[in-house]
Amino acid sequence: MNNTFLNMASIGDFDPLNASIPATKVEITVSFCVLYTQGMGNKEWREYGRTEVIDNTLNPDFVRKFMLDYFFEERQNLRFDLFILFCVGSPPISQDFLGQACCTLGEVVGSVGSRLEKPLGGIQGKKCGTIIVKAEELNNCRESVMMQFCGNKLDKKDFFGKSDPFLVFYRSNEDGTFTICHKTEVVKNTLNPVWQAFKIPVRALCNGDYDSISFVLLPNASQVTLLSFLVDIEVTFLDYIKGGTQINFTVAIDFTASNGNPAQPTSLHYMSPYQLNAYAMALKAVGEIIQDYDSDKMFPALGFGAKLPPDGRVSHEFALNGNPQNPYCTGIDGVMEAYYQSLKSVQLYGPTNFSPVINHVARYAASVKDGSQYFVLLIITDGVISDMAQTKESIVNAASLPMSIIIVGVGPAEFDAMVELDGDEVRISSRGRFAERDIVQFVPFRDYIDRTGNHILSMARLAKDVLAEIPDQFLSYMRTRGIKPSPAPPPYSPPSQPIQTQI
């Protein structure tokens, strides 16, 4: 598969060795401003583009739109600087700063109707007005292609038999390298295979550019025939988000004694005054992205494997804020504060049981099956699971609910058993019953640590990997249940009086 990218705009620095397929493309409507973006892992703002200038209005509506690649799994920071131009003689034009607003692309698409309104700041002691940012998903990002191929009289490759043929499809990158975008199943012992029809998003196949599609036949492969090619329009993750579906985020933190005394620098829970520990980095990296899709920003925060005051009872499902009736924390900063306070009050103990916190979130997910909410549980742990059988059963049960589980392993321990929970290769099962779908993503944090000590980059790499599967897991639940996205709110109509700046 040979494809050339055209007009591709990326928020982050392009790294051909780790090129990712964007979840989709969205269109940002802005007015009278300069848009700046940040590369992944650094704080440097770079100018991305400018609108045209419209004269004599306090409520301009501009034609220029910015095309941005959208990644659910990345924190994509945006900054809007607004200016006004004056004709003042020589030089004929001068520029005055009107205000500034910062947000993430996730905040925009995660707002009701993908419309975000923010106050402008940047001028001390002055109200600068309002900026409105709207996002619209491009139509060609909703398209998928259904294809089927067959082979006829292929070359015999096996010494004693015929052949076991399969097809591999590649997408070409800008630097001339190739990325696998699909591989068919193997058809055993035949020279005339008929492969199963398969569906692939157009963005993965050719980034929406149909003119760039061509099939390159390798030597001795001229007998491969395209049987069918059908383009289909599908609802997307953003259709549900725009229709009001909320992503509910819960965090569960390992307080077992194997983490080490939090008062000692060797502990994985050590609270250094200079930098975040591994638990805090994992929590912040994932939480700051997911919180953009939760309107009330109230997050349950749980702990497990500790003795609680005042009687020293062991708990595997306790509220970090100390209030079991209301374990919700305000924003990710509130979760971080509750985590730090818990370290001062509980005694690290054990064992490492996952099933209680999984069942905790599953109870809530089981009560909301209409597509209005989807639940994501982040478990951060340092060791081997003690209740593996119960955890498998909990995951198999949760796989039929609107729920996903992210497990981040911190520290130097071996996490071989954890891989079994991640159903990428073999679907997890319990008592002979297989999970309906893959809902678990496990990664060891040490694989994402930047060797130069750039913690921002380490956190961005972690979040990018652990969150990448969430949109597809979300869609798999909605589609198998036949749940359609709710209608988006009606388009915004600007007020009759020019009281704000529309972007």
Automatic annotation (TrEMBL):
> Which intervals of the chain are annotated as region Disordered?
484-503
Origin: domain of life: Eukaryota
Its keywords, alphabetically, are: Repeat
Any single Pfam family the record assigns to this protein = C2
Q: Which Gene3D superfamilies match?
A: C2 domain
A cellular component term from Gene Ontology for this protein is:
plasma membrane
Locate the compositionally biased regions of type Pro residues. 486-497
Q: Which InterPro entries match?
A: C2_dom, C2_domain_sf, C2B_Copine, Copine, Copine_C, VWF_A, vWFA_dom_sf
Q: What Gene Ontology terms describe what this protein does at the molecular function level?
A: calcium-dependent phospholipid binding
Q: Which family does it belong to?
A: Belongs to the copine family.
What is this protein's name? Answer: Copine 8
